[in-house]
Amino acid sequence: MRRKMYTVRSLTVDKGKNSVVDLCLEFDGNRAFVVWDKILFGEFELKARLEIDPRRLKKARSSVCDFFYRGELVLPRPENN
Asked: Domains in the chain: how many in total?
């Protein structure tokens, strides 16, 4: 099943400082996910997705992204896993 991919821009905290991040956004029914990372494994695509609150998404009037996330994303850090 192929999902339509969108882009989302959000505020995130990296090393104690606020920064802006652009990520891929997917919808699955009424749920929303940002795609943090993805890799190809043969013919399969493995994705690290984080579920976000779709009510905090705002449609963007920008050529840079499709949506703004009006919240703060806390992305996993690989060194903490």
From this structure: 1
For 39, the domain range is 6-71
For residue 12, being part of any structural domain is answered with: yes
For residue 9, the number of C-alpha atoms closer than 13 Å in the C-beta half-sphere is 12
User: Residue 51 CB: number of other CB atoms within 10 A?
Assistant: 10
**All residues at 6 or more sequence positions from 29 whose CB lies less than 8 Å from its CB, including other chains:** none
Residue corresponding to tokens 């882009």: 7
Please tell me the predicted confidence (pLDDT) of residue 2. Answer: 55
81 occurs within a structural domain: no
Per-residue buried b or exposed e for 6-21, using 16+ beta carbons within 10 Å of the residue's own CB: bbbbbeeeeeeeeeee
Give pTM, 2 decimals: 0.78
